[in-house]
């Protein structure tokens, strides 16, 4: 122990004497370890760590269903309430199941209204998760009924922030929607729900669905897909067996109801939302980024190892003296490894500081959907950082320590640390090549994601999204006529605002709500199938298409004359029309909307194709009908078209929308707010890969510079002799630059293989970019070679200025 402490003190003193070297190494390692600590925190939150407060989380599963439909097979975490009822009857496999549905709701009225995150659940929810109330009670089966008095349970954090932890909150009325919910309990401390977005309030799903969260028919209709399901496995039951039992129960219930759910299969996944069968592309890209952040750490370790190799060569005489005085090879190895441990520990400490100071910003940039309240650094991140430091000690220190400890004693004492030869030259070159190869791999990934993002941003949505905003008033207790009247009144007021071009309302909205009715078409025996399903319709007010910026390609738009009692008309999307009547004009053709419909709805116009559900969907079966001609229509939301960018009008529209004290919370957002999330996986990949690639490029460039600078200093005599024998400055520059470029070319050759493998592995996350994209595979090596040449030129220029007389005299 005494010798260990002595070596540690010596290592600190030795490193203190070379502050630039020590600071550079620690900062390099801090960047590598800090990036990995931050990414581990993200991956841990997304994939590994169960929701806080849940008892025995390994036994809790998320239920998904696999459908076989006209558009092919597809998997969904959303199901109907009757399907949940079928699964409740399956006693084999799952001991209990709970429906869950998350949605923001307005709390309060008018300008005092705020938005809170509500999670509606069936009464089994709290027992299934083995939770205990911190105050009061949880709701039970008597509360989870359509006719029950509305009750609510508060999250602990919401209770503290909005009610100051006052225990008298029990029994008070919480104004949600148009009604009031009696607070009966507070959930235990630390529990914030089972989704990434924390819940503020919990409501019984049956009671809340009677107007506040959804239409009453959502409880009875198998076509109303809106809830998700959690389950707990029975002791000793495997997920496979439980899924099989659930499949039988759902199919039996669906057959009894003559539902197409008779072909679905149940899938069970972990409780972590991002690990379910509906895993998002954002989560997949995050996992990839976490993997490639390890590459940054490897590059940092290779760079540090190179620096330590060079430092070890310059200390040959010191180590030889120690060996001649009796220090064994084991003692030298221990001393050098302790130096590496001091450097890695310092880098780890800096990494924690970087994670605390900059990790929150980095996490919000990389994955803004994660709640800002989640800690950046917790105990699990600290343990990961500790293990990363231990691994870094061996990655960084083992090879330099081994090289330095096996130095030739006699030669080292003779040369006194000078000479033209440098031990470990091949190892340093190998480490340099490895840095370059790994850096090129990251640059290839960055290039592919950047090109994917560019392609996605160029998608023609068929909508003028930058000049649109949506305004939504939750029905929350209002009947259909009252809700529609509130929308139309608000639309009339918004139309008067300066900067507003037009306002229109719609039942069914792009990227959010879709409605479908059975449909037959004139002269079409068999309806064509579309991968995106449908056909879908939107019931719209006049000027809707003009407001949205959707062009009329043929015929006319819907207008004020298309009223109730007049001939039924529709405008059809161009792609849908081409599939129904290929090569013929759809104008004047009839479609029949609804089961056994007899009345013709005449096609009076063809609209340019607009995206309906996904930005990347290739096609959509979509048509538009007059709102006034739809039986019992509901306004889903209204759209406001602005002269300038919509973001500039949000404040004015919000003020006008919330001016009425009778309205619940009104949500106003630029239309791009619902489009941008669909771009986020490519933006996330482009941003992270580019940042990591740029950092790796900087580290690799400094590695080339450091290795060649050290090589030049060791070859001063050789360079002096060459110049004395007639070599010109250009010859010396080519000699040194050639050494760096040869290493770069070797790294590029290996890196191309790594980049190719990476591109093919993540090809499913790219958009209209081939893994063998020529532009990326050409530009990335060229950028790397250009940087490598510049990094090699700087020490080469210094070598070319060597005075041969000074160099020879010094030797």
Would you give an account of this structure?
The protein is an alpha+beta fold and 811 residues long. Helices cover 48% and strands 17% of the residues. It is built from 22 helices and 23 strands. Strands 12, 13, 14, 15, 16, 17, 18, 19, 20, 21, 22 and 23 form a 12-stranded mixed beta sheet that branches. Strands 1, 2, 3, 4, 5, 6, 7, 8, 9, 10 and 11 form an 11-stranded mixed beta sheet that branches. Strand 7 and strand 8 (179-187) form a beta hairpin. Helix 2 packs antiparallel against helix 8 and helix 13 (425-457) packs across helix 20. It is globular and about 105 Å long. The two termini are 43 Å apart. Mean pLDDT is 81; it is low at 416-423.
Rg (CA only): 34 Å
Summarize model confidence as the mean pLDDT. Answer: 81
Strand portion, in percent?
15-25%
Span from first to last CA? 43 Å
Largest sheet data: 12 strands, mixed
């Amino acid at each position: 122990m005494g010798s260990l402490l002595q070596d540690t003190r010596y290592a600190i003193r030795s490193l203190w004497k070379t502050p630039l070297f020590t600071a550079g190494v620690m900062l390099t390692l801090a960047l590598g370890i800090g990036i990995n600590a931050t990414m581990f925190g993200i991956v841990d939150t997304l994939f590994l760590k169960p929701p806080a407060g849940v008892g025995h989380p390994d036994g809790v599963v998320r239920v998904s269903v696999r459908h076989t439909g006209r558009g092919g097979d597809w998997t969904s975490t959303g199901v109907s309430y009757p399907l949940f009822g079928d699964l409740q009857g399956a006693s084999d496999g799952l001991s209990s199941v709970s429906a869950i549905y998350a949605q923001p709701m307005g709390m309060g009225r008018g300008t005092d209204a705020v938005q809170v995150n509500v999670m509606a659940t069936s009464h089994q929810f709290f027992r299934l998760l083995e939770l205990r109330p911190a105050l009061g009670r949880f709701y039970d089966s008597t509360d989870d009924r359509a006719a029950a008095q509305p009750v609510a349970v508060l999250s602990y954090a919401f209770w503290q922030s909005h009610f100051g932890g006052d225990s008298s909150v029990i029994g008070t009325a919480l104004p949600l929607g148009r009604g009031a919910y009696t607070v009966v309990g507070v959930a235990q401390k630390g529990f914030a729900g089972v989704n990434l977005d924390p819940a503020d309030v919990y409501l019984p799903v049956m009671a809340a669905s009677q107007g506040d969260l959804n239409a009453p028919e959502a409880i009875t209709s198998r076509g109303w897909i809106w809830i998700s399901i959690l389950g707990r496995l029975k002791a000793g039951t495997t997920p496979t067996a439980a899924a099989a039992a659930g499949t039988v129960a759902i199919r039996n219930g669906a057959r009894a109801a003559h539902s197409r759910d008779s072909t679905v299969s149940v899938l069970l996944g972990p409780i972590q939302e991002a690990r379910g069968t509906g895993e998002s592309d954002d989560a997949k890209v995050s996992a990839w980024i976490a993997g490639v952040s390890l590459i940054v750490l490897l590059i940092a370790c290779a760079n540090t190892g190179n620096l330590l190799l060079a430092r070890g060569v310059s200390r040959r005489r010191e180590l030889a003296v120690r060996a001649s005085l009796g220090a064994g090879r084991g003692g030298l190895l221990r001393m050098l490894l302790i130096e590496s441990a001091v450097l890695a520990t310092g880098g780890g400490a800096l990494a924690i500081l970087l994670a605390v100071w900059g990790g929150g910003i980095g996490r919000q940039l990389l994955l803004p959907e994660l709640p800002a309240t989640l800690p950046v650094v917790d105990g699990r991140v600290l343990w990961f950082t500790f293990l990363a430091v231990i691994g870094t000690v061996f990655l960084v220190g083992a090879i330099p320590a081994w090289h330095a400890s096996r130095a030739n004693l006699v030669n080292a004492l003779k040369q006194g640390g000078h000479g033209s030869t440098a031990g470990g030259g091949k190892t340093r070159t190998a480490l340099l090549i490895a840095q370059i190869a790994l850096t090129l791999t990251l640059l290839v990934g960055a290039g592919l994601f950047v090109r994917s993002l560019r392609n996605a941003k160029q998608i023609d949505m068929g909508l003028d999204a930058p000049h649109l905003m949506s305004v939504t008033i939750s029905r929350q207790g209002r009947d259909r006529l009252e809700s529609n009247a509130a929308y139309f009144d608000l639309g009339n007021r918004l139309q008067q605002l300066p900067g507003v071009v037009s306002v229109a309302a719609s039942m069914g909205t792009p990227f959010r709500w879709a409605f479908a009715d059975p449909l037959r078409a004139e002269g079409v025996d068999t309806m064509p199938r579309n991968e995106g399903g449908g056909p879908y319709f939107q019931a719209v007010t006049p000027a809707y298409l003009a407001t949205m910026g959707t062009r009329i390609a043929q015929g006319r738009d819907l207008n004020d004359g298309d009223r109730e009692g007049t001939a039924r008309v529709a405008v059809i999307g161009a792609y849908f029309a081409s599939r129904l009547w290929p090569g013929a004009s759809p104008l004047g053709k009839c479609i029949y909307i609804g089961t056994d419909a007899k009345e013709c709805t005449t096609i009076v116009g063809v609209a340019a194709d607009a995206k309906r559900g996904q930005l990347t969907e290739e096609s959509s079966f979509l048509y538009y009908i007059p709102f006034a001609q739809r039986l019992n229509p509901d306004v889903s939301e209204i759209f406001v078209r602005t002269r300038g960018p919509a973001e500039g009008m949000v404040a004015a529209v919000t003020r006008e929308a919330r001016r009425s004290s009778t309205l619940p919370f009104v949500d106003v957002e630029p239309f791009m707010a619902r489009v941008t999330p669909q771009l986020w996986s490519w933006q996330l990949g482009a941003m992270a890969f580019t940042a990591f690639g740029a950092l790796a490029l900087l580290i690799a460039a400094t590695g080339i510079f450091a290795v060649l600078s050290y090589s030049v200093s060791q070859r001063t005599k050789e360079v002096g002799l060459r110049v004395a024998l007639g070599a010109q400055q250009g010859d010396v520059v080519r000699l040194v630059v050639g050494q760096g470029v040869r290493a770069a070319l070797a790294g590029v050759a290996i890196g191309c293989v790594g980049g190719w493998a990476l591109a093919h592995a993540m090809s499913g996350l790219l958009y209209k970019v081939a893994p063998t994209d020529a532009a990326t595979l050409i530009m990335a090596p060229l950028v790397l070679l250009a940087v490598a040449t510049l990094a090699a030129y700087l020490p080469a220029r210094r070598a070319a200025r060597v005075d041969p007389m000074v160099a020879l005299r010094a030797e």
